[in-house]
Amino acid sequence: MSPGELEGDNVSKPAPTREADRIDILDVLRGIGVLGILAVNAAAFAYPVEAYFNPLNSPFPFEGLSAEVWRVVHVFFEQKFITLFSMLFGVSLFLVGGERDDLERSTLLRWRLFWLALIGIGHGTVIWYGDILLAYAVAGFVVSFARSWSAGRLLVCGVILYLAGAAIEAGAYALFTVVPLPPEELARMSEDIGWRLTPAEIQETIAAFGGTFDQSLRANFNVWLEVVWLLFWPKTYGLMMIGLGLYKVGYLRGKAPAWVHAILVIVGACMLALMNQGATQAMAAGFPMIESLGPWRLALASGALFATLGYASALMLLHAAVGTSGLWALAATGRMAFTNYLTQSLIMTAIFYGGRGLGLFGQLDLTELAVVVIGVWALQLLWSPLWLSVFSMGPLEWIWRCLTYRRFLPIGRSQPAA
Question: What is the pTM of this model?
């Protein structure tokens, strides 16, 4: 049986997905990944984009329970679940496209990435500027040429690209250490890059995103133009290679021994402790620009991979103990990850953007925002199993597959043989 058949996403046969054909742990990991991403993205839905990097750019005081909510998200969620999602996307390139010499599946993979890019452009420009789908489509096309590489080659090249991305993230610190700037120059630079917005600038952004439909649409599009350069961020390419390399050595197929998982859980916990220390220092110092973009950012950017592997190993150990049935809600959420990711954007922009629903942009503090996130989690954990009890895949997964094959495909669950 080929890897694609094991995954249940083998595009060489359009029959509805069969549960026995899937690697269940990948669904579980996708489920936790898509839910964890929302915890981090929530601030970008509800506040100016600058608050994503510096919580002092929120319209609310950074103190008390709100500060602790930020700490929890920063330490336990930020960069961990997008790291996991990126690695799993790298695996899907091989499960869908097979080896490079498989021309039929290679063609279908290219169509799949083409439609993903178009969907990503629509998502980013019209719904929410923080879209990751276009970046995945572009990176996926590039990395697909390496999908037949050996596990070792994928891991080495992936780690190099990953560390290069982490170094770029923290490059400002090294630059300013070599060429220190006077305080007034740092203040001007901080203002230029939006590290610390003025109250008037925060209110101006709130008025734009929380205004009419036309105003929020224009504001979203303008920010999308500013962040679309992330298409070329080397970490994304590196993580896809690392994910596929880990799949080929058996780790992401649940084949690693328990002691490997135990070591990774311990290493991941140590990384989280270091990140918590950095968060404590940042909070006490008031988020100075250079340190926040330098050593603290480097610790987060480089350590996120190890923390993510710790999470993945912990989940694999749990899956081995309770089975897929014990984690079915999470696995179902992962099987519908594409639908759930886009649904999160629709729900959150309906709550926060003006002209689309409630228009609460900049109106909820971090504790209230956490309640919204938990509510969306509960909704997706409930509706995903219910949907899959009737259909073989999520509605947007079905549309994406029909576009890939360029014909109508069934979505109903296959009936067991008599």
Answer: 0.90
